[in-house]
Amino acid sequence: MHAYACVRSTNQLVKEALCQGVPEGYCATALEQEGGYGRQGRVWASPLGGVYTSFALRPSVPPQILPTLSLVASLAVADALERVRSSCNPLIKWPNDVLCPEGKLAGISLEALAGGVCVGVGVNVYEPFAKREVEGKYSLAYLQDGVVEAGLSAEQRTVMTQVVESMLEAMECRYGRWLQEGFSAFIDEYSQRFAYRDKRASLALINGDETIEGIIRGVDGLGRLLVENDVGIIMPMSSGEVHVTSLQR
Fold this sequence. Notes:
This protein is an alpha+beta fold. The protein has two domains: 2-190, BirA Bifunctional Protein, domain 2; 197-247, Roll (SH3 type barrels), CATH 2.30.30.100. It contains four helices and 14 strands. It has helices at 10-19, 68-84, 154-181, 187-193, and strands spanning 2-4, 27-30, 50-57, 91-93, 97-100, 103-113, 116-124, 127-128, 147-148, 200-205, 211-219, 225-228, 234-237, 242-247. It has a seven-stranded mixed beta sheet. Strands 13-12-11-10-14 form a five-stranded antiparallel beta sheet. A two-stranded parallel ribbon has the order 8-9. Helix 2 (68-84) runs antiparallel to helix 3. The radius of gyration is 18 Å and the shape is globular. The termini are far apart.
């Protein structure tokens, strides 16, 4: 693991390493980023107070299976955060955001390149002193109480280390199982943490203006969202096709 105080982007470091032929398992983590980004290139503000970690993986799986890695990564992150703070009760917003009742705890991105995959994870551990602009529907939530002001205290640094170590352990465990058994081995676990089940939602097509409405019933073995329309037909939707725009609570 390569640890930094501040970088432009841990994703960028890992992507450069993948292009240089780095073997699977390379990891970069930082306490602050100046140019962090998340899924679909959205800005991910990365001040002191969070943990920003990226992994280099080289899975040998069929292309249609690869998107399920993001769902497996979300399970690993949720499990890791719950180990650090058992009361956080993390849930997953499909496909891979990690939520708690107060808002968004963590975001995950995947980028395939150079025969590998960069898995980026940003976790809100402590609230930063300066307020952040937030993209998306969810407010920010923090794993631990307390605010980071001039710098991290010794206790805060210890917790940051615990978060990173817990994520590394959880990712290694689930990644190995995913390679052997596929996403079907995780459907039950994902369903238990799924924040959407039996909710009525509106979904927007990414490459158009059309909106789809229906009741979310779960996910399938390819990680696709299962949406039941008004005539009872179940429609599988991939994360590359749609995103959820509103949810009936």
